[in-house]
Amino acid sequence: MIASGSRYVALGSSFAAGPGIRPIVHPPAGRSGNNYAHLVAAELGLDLVDVSYSGATTAHVLDTPQDEAPPQLDALTPETALLTITVGGNDLEYVGAFLRGSFLNTVAKPATILGRRVANRIRARVSYLKDDAAYQTVTDSLTTVVERARERSPEARILLVDYLSLVGPATRPRLDVPLNEEQLPSIALMADGLAAAFAKAAAASGAELVAASAASRDHAIGSAEPWTTGFTLRPSYLGGHVSYHPNAAGMRAVADLVLETLRT
């Protein structure tokens, strides 16, 4: 177990930052004060340095500034005792493809008034499938993140925390998400490829794996108790939410998975 008062650094993209979950403590990053890092730190009494940032790729963790933020690895010091990493989805445009497809399909419905050909052109603008090389690149990048992190923080316990499942057995095309029967399985395949990249990177680097993807499969969109949000065009000031991202229950679940791993 990590001792109380130890330095904990959280790296990652929006699935770590928690956009849309109140309170938002850093608006440019979409970083929530109730994301899983904050919940873990509060539970264990840790000194949290959370540099997770919505939209981040593995490059933003390794060596590329994002907006005003320096590369996320810069937050690591030799005193860091715990490190969690949730990044790589944006390298594949995982959520981005899901969002674009959902938006275009929603827009295509009224476009059918102009003719089915116009509607089909709108729907055809999204590519959902990635080749094996793309997943291998994410695996290699995650492995490099762990290796570079270990150089900066040799005593840190390093956890690769993968992405909550958006699509699961209960997710129905057209009803729960605005994708059809051909599009939805492609999103599920991309999620599987991302989860496999985390598992391979953990095995290659010696980091510990927190498989949030597997634990949340029965809590995907369309389930009785979803841990992620569905699609909406409604803005937040009209009661909308950030589409296809963890909700408060999902962040709590990921925090519990991290705590369970740390207590093992």
Describe this structure in words.
With 264 residues, the chain is of the alpha/beta class. The chain has nine helices and seven strands, in the order βαββαβαβαααβαβαα. Strand 2 (24-26) and strand 3 form a beta hairpin. The N and C termini lie close together (8 Å).
Task: List the keywords.
alpha/beta; two-stranded antiparallel sheet; GDSL-like lipase/acylhydrolase family protein; 7 strands; SGNH_hydro_sf; SGNH_hydro; 264 residues; 41% helix; SEST-like
Radius of gyration: 18 Å
Give, in spatial order, the strands making up the sheet with the most strands. 4-1-5-6-7
Q: What's the number of helices?
A: 9
Query: What kind of assembly state do the chains in view correspond to?
Result: single chain
Tell me the strand percentage band. 5-15%
Q: Tally the beta strands.
A: 7
Distance, first to last CA: 8 Å
Helix proportion: 40-55%
Largest sheet entry: 5 strands, parallel
- The helix-and-strand class reads alpha/beta
What is the residue-mean pLDDT, rounded to a whole number? Answer: 92
Q: Report low-confidence residues grouped into runs of 5 or more.
A: 111-115
